[in-house]
Design goal:
5-stranded parallel β-sheet; 51% helix
Length: 211
């Protein structure tokens, strides 16, 4: 995909839960990219007095909020994964606000590369149209479950439901310009793959950037 002159290269980064996407994102930021994290934006929007909370209270009732006024994430996760209609209402309220904030952050970025870290990029045509390249971090479902189960508060059933709710591995890989298969990779090897891809894409599309 070509990009207009004088605009940063926009990379869409995605991967299933437990894939190691956050590590890849951190490496890209260390290399000089501006990182725009859709999940971080969502957390701000649903924190105490977050911009999304009035709409979420209207949709789901005051019980969806914790005592401090933030979204009760555990309750919302349980509702969203048990009721597809509730999940659609949640996404309908949140996604436009996330998109607006991501666009604002991208507009003020002063780096040659902007990375949009978007877990649901494969599910969204809107996000795919915003980026020049798509990087997918992939691994087996068994590895996803193993990694997620190491996180506090996660059950095997919840991990499996989250994985089932996301786009499948084949769907993510089908939209990718590059795939990093992060199964059995040591951290140093994963970072090396990210750096190699960074150099490749810069050589093809960008003036040299000091590293």
């Amino acid at each position: 995909m070509s990009r207009p002159p004088q605009r940063p290269l926009r990379i869409g980064l995605t991967g299933g839960i437990g894939s190691g996407k956050s590590t890849v994102a951190a490496t890209l930021r260390q290399l000089g990219a501006t990182l725009i994290d859709a999940d971080a934006i969502a957390r701000r929007l649903t924190g105490p007095d977050g911009a999304a909370m009035p709409a979420l209270r209207r949709i789901f009732g005051d019980t969806i909020a914790s005592a401090d006024g933030a979204l009760n994430r555990e309750a919302m996760r349980s509702l969203a994964f048990s009721d597809p209609a509730a999940r659609q209402r949640l996404e309908g309220a949140l996604h436009p606000l996330i998109g607006d904030e991501a666009a604002r952050e991208a507009a003020i970025a002063n780096t040659a590369v902007v990375v949009f870290d978007v877990p649901l990029l494969a599910e969204s045509r809107h996000w795919r149209e915003r980026v020049d390249r798509v990087l997918v971090v992939d691994c087996s479902e068994a590895t996803q479950i193993d990694r997620v189960m190491q996180r506090p508060g996660w059950s095997l059933d919840t991990a499996r439901r989250v994985i089932a709710s996301q786009a499948g591995r084949a769907a993510r890989r089908s939209i990718a310009d590059a795939v990093i298969f992060n199964d059995g990779l040591a951290l140093v090897a994963l970072e090396a793959e990210v750096r190699a891809l960074w150099r490749l894409w810069q050589a093809a599309t960008l003036p040299p950037v000091e590293q």
